[in-house]
Amino acid sequence: MSAPRSRSLLLVGLLVALLVAGFGSYYASNHPDGLIYVAEQTGFDDQQDQSAAGDGPFAGYSTRGVDDERLGGGLAGVAGVLVVLTLSGGLFWVLRRRGPADDAGV
Amino acid sequence: MHVPDGFLDATTSLATGAVAVVGVSLALRGARRELDDRTAPVAGLVATFVFAGQMMNFPVGAGTSGHLLGGALAAVLAGPWTAVLCLSVVLLVQALFMADGGITALGTNITLMGLVAVGVAWLVFCGLRMVLPKRVSMVPAAAAVAALVSVPSAAAVFTLLFVVGGTAPIDTGTLLTAMLGWHVVIGLGEAAITGLVVGSVVAVRPDLVHGARPLLEERTLVIRPAVPR
């Protein structure tokens, strides 16, 4: 069996990321994470300020205007995946060392 | 682990902001050596995967949860400088679009998850790579150990920042014990996810794994008799 081409690997990876963010995240634990839990236990969680981005369309991993939790969360996850992919992919493509591609697998 | 606005005072947030700016600037230079036509798309996917992974909070008992930080994962797959940029992009998007992690705390979060977690993970990984057998099969295990150490390291640095510039008087020992205790448990989840994902990529395309590359180059070429088809 030959090694999978880079493109297939990238597509599989992107599919997994979209599934996790768009679908799997609904099943993620809703409990506060370690830091916020410790803040609650030791008594400094009320120092927390509302983020200035708290009114954004995807604030809190939900979608404004979408009441269904599963759909709203999934849309926010997919939107986040696409924004991160575009920003990081663009940044790394600009930063990369230019030169002839040395890999026949692409 | 995302620090919200208000936990740390303005001076400390400015200081971590300056640390983050210096760290990201260095990473923008360093990442050029790690990225080429073949690895740049993989690195973009690594950042995307870290974002998705950070959404999957897993329960760690007693009403609390943890999620992947991704410092070790990104460093081993894409290289340490690129990993700093991966985490920085993820944290920027989370702070601006998801209100996850404060905006004035962005420098703190980049320092903790982008610089400390990635830096500690990469040092542990390289240390293990030096002492373990020079085989590609050690890469997922070393990545998992690096992941395990990286999470409580970031938690310890948060505690230090809170002692210096926290906005509430909390006993240092109590805070450190609670932060380290929970984040060692979260680190176990981090280790499992990191080992699994790095193991999967190493199994199919070890040449795309930054941390495995020196080991591939050391593999000797063996001439074997041709197998009749």
Reading the helices and strands of chain B in chain order gives: HHEEHHHHHH
Which structural class do the helices and strands of chain B define? mainly alpha
Rounded to the nearest angstrom, the radius of gyration of chain B is 19 Å
Uncertain segments of chain A: 102-106
Strand order of the largest sheet of chain B: 1-2
Provide the helix percentage of chain B: over 70%
* Biggest β-sheet description of chain B: 2 strands, antiparallel
Question: What can you tell me about this protein's structure?
Answer:
The complex is a heterodimer of chains A (106) and B (229). By secondary structure, chain A is mostly helical. Helix content of chain A is 50%, strand content 0%. Chain A has helices at residues 6-22, 34-42, 69-95. In chain A, α1 packs antiparallel against α3. The longest helix of chain A is centred in the C-terminal third of the chain and has 27 residues, at 69-95. The relative contact order of chain A is 0.14. Chain B is built from eight helices and two strands, in the order ααββαααααα. A two-stranded antiparallel sheet of chain B has the order 1-2. The longest helix of chain B has 33 residues, at 172-204. Chain B is elongated. At the A-B interface, α1, α2 and α3 of A face α1, α2, β1, β2 and α4 of B.
Task: Tag the structure with descriptive keywords.
heterodimer, A: 106 residues, mainly alpha, 3 helices, B: 229 residues, two-stranded antiparallel ribbon, 8 helices, 71% helix, 3% strand, elongated
Topology of this structure?
The complex is a heterodimer of chains A (106) and B (229).
Chain A: H1 6-22, H2 34-42, H3 69-95
Helix pairs in contact in A: 1-3
Chain B: H1 10-34, H2 39-55, E1 58-61, E2 64-66, H3 71-78, H4 80-98, H5 106-131, H6 138-165, H7 172-204, H8 213-218
At a glance:
With 106 residues, chain A is mostly helical. Chain A has 3 helices and no strands. With 229 residues, chain B is mostly helical.
